[in-house]
Write a structure and sequence with these properties.
The chain is of the alpha+beta class. It is about 25% helix and about 15% strand. It is elongated. It starts with about 20 loop residues before the first helix and ends in an 18-residue tail after the last helix. Residues about 30-35 and about 105-110 have low confidence and may be disordered.
Length: about 110
Amino acid sequence: METGHECRATPSSMKREKRLTRRERKAAGGSDAATGNAAHIHCVACGRHIDPSEFTRTPTSARYLRCQHGSRHASCTGCVSQAMELLQEHDRTGEPVRMRPPGTEFSGGHL
C-alpha cells in the first residue's frame, strides 16, 4: 500500500464535460426536426397519421400546404379544403393552427 497518495477530489478534477445545447444536438445528429421533415406527420384537418412516402408516391395521398407565414402543414388529399380553412384562420388570427387531434375528423370528413 502506498502512503502519501490520497485520492482527493478537487474542483478542477470534478469538472463536468461540456454538454451540447438542444440546438447543437439536433444539428449534429441530423435530426429530422432540425430540417423540418419530421417523420411523425399528421393531417392538420383530420389528424390521420401520414407516412412520408404518401407525399411522393403516385398518386399522392397527402400534400404539404403553406400558410402566409411560409410554414408547411401536412394534409390528406381528401382534407385539403378543410386544411386550407384552418390555415386561413391561422393567417387571420395569428394563432397557431388548430390542428385536429389524431382520430377526430370534421363532420362529413373522410376516414
